[in-house]
Amino acid sequence: MKYIEEYREKSLILKLSDHIKKSVKRNYSFMEVCGGHTSAIHRFGIPSLLPPEIKLISGPGCPVCVTATDFIDKALAYSQMENVTIVTFGDLIMVPGSSSSLEKEKTRGADIRIVFSGLDALNIARTEPDKTVIFLGIGFETTAPGTAVTVRTARKEGFGNFLLLSAHKVMPPVMEAIVREGIKIDGFICPGHVAAITGSHIFNFLPEKYRLGCVIAGFEPTDLLQSILMLVRQVNTNSPDVEIQYSRAVTANGNLVAQDQLYGVFEPCDANWRGFGNISDSGLRLKREYDAFDAEKRIPVTIQQYRDNPSCICGDVLRGLKIPGNCSLFRSSCTPENPVGACMVSSEGACNSYFKYHSQ
Amino acid sequence: MCLSVPALVVAIDGQMADVSVGGAMFKAGLHMVENVRTGDYILLHAGFAIQKISEEEALETLNLLNELKNFENE
Amino acid sequence: MSEIVTLNHGSGGKQSHELIMNLFVKKFGMPLPLTDSAVFTENGCTLAFTTDSYVVDPIFFPGGNIGKLALCGTVNDLSVSGAVPKYISASFIIEEGFPVKDLEIIAGSMAEEAEGAGVKIVTGDTKVVGKGKCDKLFITTAGTGFIKSGFEHISTGKMIRSGDKLIVNGPLGDHAIAVLGARNNMSFSSSVMSDCASLNHMIQSVLSECNLVHFMRDLTRGGLSSVLYELSHLSGMGISIDETSVPVDDPVRGLCEVLGFDPFTLANEGKVLIVAGSEEHEKILNILRSHPLGRKSALIGEISDVKKGNVILNTFSGGQRILDIPSGIQLPRIC
Predict the structure, then answer these.
(1) CB contact, 8 Å: B24 with chain A?
(2) Do A4 and C257 lie within an 8 Å CB cutoff?
C-alpha cells in the first residue's frame, strides 16, 4: 500500500535505530501527545529499537483519555431520553462516566450507535426523522473540521433532528500547561495529523517561549525514528526548533480550507480535561449562529457533580510524572475490561498499553 | 493525532470520493481539500480527506532516509 | 466477573474465556484443558465430540451463509482434534416470519457442504419463536468422529516441544471483513469473501503422512491472537511470531489500517494453526500448499524455551513486543 509500506522498510528502520544509538550523548525524555503516536510506538516495538538513554513519555494526546467524566455523564443522560439516538465514534464506548458507560447503557437497551464518520451520523438523522440524533464530537484539530462540515451540511439541508455534543479540543494549550507545570522533558514529538490541518506554526511557542524543541512526526516506524533522531540532534546542538519530519502531509500554514471549515463553525472555549481540570481556550464550541445544533442549548441536561476516584492517578500519568505501575488501582480494580480511569480505556492510553506490554 | 491513512482516489462524485486502501473501498468527503483528481492520494480520517499527500515531499523524505541508510559515518 | 453479560463476553477474547472458565467449566466440572472437541475413550474407541452455535449477522454474506458456517465450523472443530468427522446434528431456532425460501437455500448449503466433507447430518431439531425473540435464525450443530490411535495428543498439546514450528494455511481476517462489509452500516466495501470451508480433507492429508503434528486449533472468533494466548497457557512455553510471515491480504490490511483493527484478532472460518516438530514443517507446508485450501500456507513462528508463557511478536519493523491479548469486540476507532 503506497505511502505506507515504503516507510516500513526494515533495513531503513534498523539503520535509523543504529544512527540514534550512535548519536546519544546523555539522557533524553521526549513526550508525544498523540494517541496515534502512542499506538504506533507500541505496535512497531519502537522502544526496543531505541538506546536506554532515550525515554518516551506518553502525554495527554488521546482524546478519549482526556474526555472528562461530565461529558460521558451528559451523553448518558441524553441516552435515557425518549426517541434519542446517541451516535459516537467507537473510541468512546468504554470510557467510564461517574456510574456507567455508553457500553453498559447500550447493553441495557439505550439506542447508542457507533459510526466511522460524522456523515454517517447525518445519514441516521436523515433516515430516522422521528429520532433526535445526538453526535458526540470528540477529537482534536484533526477530527473537528469533519464535525464542522457535518454541522454545516446539517444546516444546509435543514436537519431539525441532528445535534452535536462537543468535546473537541485543541492541542497547544495543554502542551503549554505541561511545560508550565515544569514537567521535565527535552522535546515534543508533535502530532502529525493535527499539524496537517493547523500547520506547524501552532507549535512555534515551544522554542520561542520555552526554548523547547519539537519535531512534527508521521506515524510509520521510519517517521518516528527519524523524528527522534532529529530531536536528539536538536538537544545535542542546543538548537530548539519546530521541524517538520512529516513533510508529505504537513506545511507551515497547514490546510487552509480545513481551517476555514473549522473556524467557520467552532470557536475556542474553556474545556475540562480529565486529569488536568479546566484549561482556558483549549476547547471548541459551536458558534452562536449554530445554536440550533447545540445539544446542550436545545435540550438542557443536568448531571450530578462528580469527583474522580481519589486513588486514580491518570492526571499524573497523562503528565508523564508517574507510570501506570505506580497506581494502586492498576491491574487490581482498574483493567482494560473494567477501566476506572481514562488512561486504561483507550487502547492508546498509557495504562492500557502498559497493561498489555507488561502483563505476561 | 489519530488514525489517518493514505488512500488512493478512485472516483469522484460531487463532494464525495471513492477511495481505496489496498483494495478496500471507503467513502471520503472532499470538503476540506481542493483540486483533487482521481489518481491522487489523500489522508483519510473519519470519513473525510483531511489533506492531499505531496508526492514530491514523500519522495524527498524517502531519499533522505535512504541517504541516511547509506551514510556510515556519523 | 461482571454482573451482566455483554457483547464482549461473546467475542472470543479475554472476557469470553473468563465467563467460560469461571462459570460454565466450574459449574459443570468439566475436565481441563478445554479443547475444540471433547475427547473420550470407551471400549477401545476414541471419540471426539463437539458443539457450537451460530448467530452470525447478516446470515448471508460473501462466500457463504449461516448454514455453511455451522457445518464447516463443527467439521473443523472435530478435524483439528485429529478426528475424522462422521455424524452431525443440526438444530434450528427460527424467528417467526423468516422466509422459507431462505431456509431452503441455507439447508441446501449445509447439505452440499456435508457431501463435500463426507459427513452425514443425521439428527436435529427445529423451534419457531415469536417475532423479535431471536435474530432471524440461530443454528446449533454438534458432531462426532473417531480419532485414530496415535493422534489423541493433538487436542491437548501435551507433546509440544521447544523448537516446534507454527504454521497457518492461509491469509487471516477474510471472514470477519466479509461479514463486516455485508452489514452495510459502515462506510466501506470490499471484494473480500469469507474463507468459510471444511478443512477435514486437507488436515487428513497432513495427518496421514506426518507423525510430528503436536497440536492444532482452528482460528475462529478472537483470531490468531486468541489461539496463541491459549497455546502459551496450555503449553507453558514461549511463542515467537514473525509478523512479516503472517499472511494477510491487502484489502484486509487496508481495512485494518483505516478502522484501527488488529488483523491477528479477526475471526476466520477456514484457517487452522498447526504446531509440529521442526523436522516435518517443510513436508507439512508442501502438503498444505498442494491443497486448494492451503495454497498460501505459511510458517509463522516457533515454540521456545525463552519467555515462557509469553507470545512475542517480532514486528516487521525489526522491533519486538508482546502480542496484545484480544479483549472485547473490536470497534472502529478514529484515534
Answers:
(1) no
(2) yes
Task: Report the pLDDT value the prediction gives residue C86, as an integer from 0 to 100.
Answer: 97
Render pLDDT for A107-134 as a digit per residue (tens, 0 to 9): 889 999 999 899 999 999 999 999 999 9
Q: How far is CA A28 from the centre of its chain?
A: 24
- Per the model's pLDDT, the better-predicted residue between A82 and C15 turns out to be A82
* Minimal CA separation from B65 to chain C, in Å: 15
Residue A250 domain-assigned (yes or no): no
Contact across the interface for B3 and C333, Cβ inside 8 Å:
yes
CATH class for the domain made up of C165-322: alpha beta
Instruction: Indicate yes or no: CB of A116 within 8 angstroms of CB of C322.
Output: no
Judged by CB atoms closer than 8 Å, whether chains meet at C327 and A337 is answered as yes
Look up the domain containing B17 and give its range: 5-70
pTM score of the predicted model: 0.88
CA–CA dist C313, A159 (Å, integer): 49
Q: How many distinct structural domains can be found in chain B?
A: 1
- Shortest distance between the Cα of B22 and any Cα of chain A, in A, equals 5
Q: Is C335 on the interface with A (CB under 8 A)?
A: yes
Chain C interface test: which of A43, A225, A352 (most C C-beta within 10 Å): A43
Integer CA distances (angstroms), A65 to A47, A320, A348, B2, C131, in order: 22, 13, 9, 13, 41
Q: Going by DSSP bridges, is the β-strand pair A28-32/A54-58 parallel, antiparallel, or unpaired?
A: parallel
Give pLDDT, residue C307: 84
Query: CA–CA separation, B52 vs B44, rounded Å?
Result: 9
Q: How far is C331 from chain A (nearest CA, A)?
A: 5
Task: Give C125: exposed, middle or buried? Use CB within 10 Å, 0-12, 13-18, 19+.
Answer: exposed
Containing domain of residue A36, as a range?
A: 5-17+27-62+175-244
Q: How many domains does chain A have?
A: 3
Whether the CB-CB separation of A63 and A140 falls below 8 Å is answered with: yes
**At the topology level of CATH, where does C33-147 sit?**
60s Ribosomal Protein L30; Chain: A; (3.30.1330)
pLDDT at B72 over 90: no
Regions of chain A short of the pLDDT cut 70: 347-348, 356-360
Beta-carbon separation of B24 and C334 below 8 A: no
Residues A205, A155, single domain; the answer is: no
What pLDDT was estimated at residue A360?
39
Q: Read off the DSSP letter of residue C168.
A: E
pLDDT of residue A68: 86
What is the rounded average pLDDT of the residues C110-138? 95
A51 and A149 fall within a common domain: no
Output the domain CATH number for residue A54.
3.40.50.11750
